[in-house]
Amino acid sequence: METTVFNPVQQHLLTMFAFDGSEERLKEVKEVLFKHFSQKMDQRLDELWDAGVLDQKRLDELRGMHLRTDLK
């Protein structure tokens, strides 16, 4: 049997949920994390756009690509 080693983020979340592991708290944490990473992604996309790496032509190319992979 393999031992799972938790990274610092996982350890912190486990500690946090040890005090209040309710579904309501989980929903709140998911919402906060979603907003945080959405803002980071928007900021990075803006940087790529401003640098000329990303433009409408590239977005159109990405729209037509099949990016999902088989997870078998």
What features would you describe in this structure?
- There is one protein chain.
- With 72 residues, the protein is mostly helical.
- Helices cover 67% and strands 0% of the residues.
- It contains 3 helices and no strands.
- The model has no long low-confidence stretch (mean pLDDT 89).
What descriptive keywords fit this protein?
3 helices, single chain
Helix/strand order: HHH
Task: Tell me, briefly, the overall form.
Answer: elongated
Structural class: mainly alpha
Radius of gyration: 19 Å
Number of strands: 0
Q: What is the average of the pLDDT values?
A: 89
State which percent range the strand residues make up: under 5%
Low-confidence stretches: none
Number of helices: 3
Percent range for helical residues?
A: 55-70%
Characterize the largest beta sheet: strand count, sense, and whether it forms a barrel. Answer: none
Write the layout of secondary structure elements.
Layout: H1 8-19, H2 23-50, H3 56-63
In brief, what are we looking at here?
The protein is an all-alpha fold and 72 residues long. The chain contains three helices and no strands.
